[in-house]
Amino acid sequence: MSYRTEGWTVVAGREIGGCEAICTKHKGCRAYSYRARDKLCLLGAKGIVYSDDFNYYERKGMPHEPYPDLPAGAAFSCTGSLCAPPPPAGPPKDPLAEATNNPAVKALESAEKVRMKLANKNLARAEADQAKAKAKVAAEQLKGREKIAKIRAKDKSQLTEAEKALLKAGDERISKREETLKLQFADAEIKEKAFEASGGAKRVQ
Fold first, then answer.
1. What's the pTM value of the predicted model, to 2 decimals?
2. Does an H or E element contain 64, and which?
């Protein structure tokens, strides 16, 4: 049977399973009727009302008004309020592009670029200051070595007390440096012997 002759959403070109699926997915669909011979699917926004207090009677001789046949081999179509909304016109929107064009995102990107530019500038300035400091220290060390070399070239009997003190301090620094190197070398030798004793390969000279 089909209930009502008007108010249907008409779907063509679907098997009964497809007709049922369309009605099931749409919250507004309350009932569907299906005709197999031409794959006609009728979706209804209203269904039959049932009640235990009433009996249904139909008047005899009521004219039979069949729903018009669909054209043979009709392609899928849907007409009525229960049809799925049409897809949006144009190509699908790119969420990444939308996010990139967002004013708030653009403002954050601009602020980040400014911060990075300032950070790079500060880093370059720090590196330049460090290079200047190293150059200054190297120049002072060179100047000190030249001064000590000139003092050493003098006759010891002609050295002033300040020059003698400067030579003594230089000799002490050299002595400490040599002692440190000796200790480091000895420590390396001990570690190498311990490594060889534990089965490690001997270093090739």
1. 0.40
2. none
